[in-house]
Structures are given as C-alpha cells and as structure tokens.
Amino acid sequence: MDVSQDGLWIVATTPTYLLVLNTELPTSSEAQKIIGFDKSIPKDGRKAPVKLQLDYKDVIRLVGIVSFTPAKFNYDPQTLERTIVTSTGPFIITWNFRSVKLGKVSEYRIKRLTDTVIDGHFAGQGNVQSVVVAMENTTAIESISGKATEKKGK
C-alpha cells in the first residue's frame, strides 16, 4: 500500500488488481479538506474505490499469470503525484494517475524487461519517466515513457 503525499489517495495492491481510494471527507467548505487519516470516514461518506486491472486480452497475449508487486505513486515535493507503477513477472505497468482520477482506468503502459521484476521505484524525486527496477539477477533504470495501451468502450 502507498499513500499520496497529501494523504488524499491510497493505492492498495492485490495479486490481480489495484484499488485506488480517495480518503477525502465531504465538507461544506472547499477551503478546508479533511482526510480519512484525520477523522474516521462515515459509512455513507465513503467514495467507491477505483479498480485498476489489465485487460484480459493483454493478460492472455502478454502477461499470462498476473501477480502484481506493491504499487507506488511517483513522489515529487513540488507537484502532485502523476503516475502509479507496479509490475508482474518481467513487465512494468504504469497508469497515469490524473487519468485514473477522471475514471480512465483502461489506459496504461506495459513494458517488457529481460528478467522477472521483484520491485520498482521511481528514479529520483519528480522523475516520472524512469523507474529503478530490482530484478532477480540485476538492477536497472528503465524508461517508462511511450504510448499508453488504450482500451475503448470501458
């Protein structure tokens, strides 16, 4: 599990999907945000989590068995988080966090590496284009830029 730096968002990892949860409590004032870390979220105030998962065609064509590593937000003290990264087998998968917040959950990038990925972290503060990847036999800095896989009609 990872938490955005402002505490408004949580990304939780299961073996086959990610859940992105908004912790902001409804208030009458936009100026004063209250988050679930400061006060309990009432049952009727909970927002539905956003489920991120790979399209079944990508699972069959590329990945096979999905077993996600813990997902993480990028971190930059100057800006809000922009990307979520996880991996499964030899693949790095990234979602644009801004798109996820708008409900565009089927746009993601998949990059195949040469070895099974054990863990990945963004390379330095603010760098959302590179991920430091720990693999079974080596470590590497991998670029995650490129065209997103986009699924229409979801």
From TrEMBL:
Vacuolar import/degradation Vid27 C-terminal domain sequence ranges: 1-141
Which PANTHER family does the annotation name? VACUOLAR IMPORT AND DEGRADATION PROTEIN 27
Pfam families in UniProt: VID27 (PF08553)
Quote the protein name from its UniProt record. Putative cytoplasm protein
Q: Where are the transmembrane segments?
A: none
GO CC, alphabetical: cytoplasm; nucleus
InterPro entries (UniProt xref): Vid27, VID27_C
